[in-house]
Design goal:
Elements lengths: L1 E8 L6 H17 L4 E3 L25 H13 L2 E3 L3 E4 L6 E8 L5 E6 L5 E4 L2 E4 L11 E5 L2 E5 L8 H6 L5 E6 L3 H19 L2 E6 L14 E4 L5 E5 L4 E8 H10 L9
Parallel strand pairs: 1-2, 2-3, 10-11, 11-12
Antiparallel strand pairs: 1-15, 3-5, 4-5, 5-6, 7-8, 9-10, 12-13, 13-14
Helix pairs in contact: 1-2
């Protein structure tokens, strides 16, 4: 009735090979602690010096050194690996799809989700506009794991609760992210807890967490939250792993005592 899951937190660099090595090391650490499902953060393979750097590393769906590495790691450890996001080719040559790929314990691809909501933020000298280098996705992403349905979302998606309703009832929602320190300090935990509470499921958030070579500071605080909104584990900053158990009985108890999902009218 319990399954151990883990979120990998990274401080990714412009060097893809270095990030691949970090991914392998931290997933191995999570596997050694008993994790059966591991989530990587957004932009884990590359956090370039400029936003456009990732375009040069975009892969065709199916194969590439990033995709092949994820498949091999999932197969090596016999676990479900949710590949944060990586750049895949898009219909526009100067942009990418910011894509979540899921691999099963046999290393086979299971599911894909292209980030729908693209982050835009300007405050003083701090400014971001993902639409300059990313083409938005259009379809909701979920897949079936042995312990139940898993919903896929990315970072800025967290601010759009209608996306999570469109997933249907999930056991686990994952949120790979690279939240800025500014917005993370204000909203990260409260939004994650809200998604867990309103959907009465577990939420596993894997974040970038530190100051990157390009000067950007990400908020970190990767965490696992239960269906009552309680934070079960958290890692403030730096590389590492957050893990904990998904408990089917705990989720059933929350939904039975407060059957909000059955009370929906809209």
């Amino acid at each position: 009735m319990k399954t151990t899951v883990a979120a990998v937190q990274m401080v990714s660099t412009p060097d893809v090979d270095q990030n691949l090595a970090t991914m392998r090391r931290l997933v191995a650490e999570a596997a050694a602690a008993g994790a059966r499902l591991v989530t990587l953060p957004e932009y884990w393979p590359i956090m370039g010096m400029t936003d456009s750097d990732k375009v040069g590393h975009a892969e065709q769906p199916g194969h590439g050194r990033i995709q092949d590495a994820m498949a091999a790691v999932a197969r090596e450890h016999g676990l479900w690996l949710i590949g944060g996001t990586l750049p895949l080719v898009s219909p526009e040559s100067d942009k990418v799809m910011n894509t979540v790929l899921v691999y099963g314990p046999d290393g086979a691809p299971v599911s894909r989700y292209d980030k729908i909501h693209l982050f835009g933020f300007t405050k003083g000298a701090e400014s971001y506009n993902e639409s300059r280098t990313i083409v938005p996705g259009a379809a909701v992403g979920t897949f079936e794991a042995p312990f139940g349905k898993v919903g896929l979302s990315v970072c800025y998606d967290l601010r759009f609760p209608e996306l999570y309703r469109a997933m249907g009832e999930c056991t686990l929602i994952v949120v790979p992210a690279a939240f800025t320190h500014t917005t993370g300090l204000a909203h990260w935990e409260i939004l994650l807890r809200a998604r867990a509470i309103e959907n009465q499921c577990y939420v596993l958030a894997a974040a970038q967490g530190g100051t990157h070579q390009n000067g950007r500071r990400t908020f970190g605080h990767s965490m696992l939250i239960d269906p009552w909104g309680e934070v079960l584990a958290v890692l403030p900053e730096g590389e590492g792993v957050v893990s904990g158990a998904i408990d089917a009985e705990r989720m059933a108890s929350v939904r039975a005592s407060l059957p909000a999902l059955q009370h929906r009218r809209l």
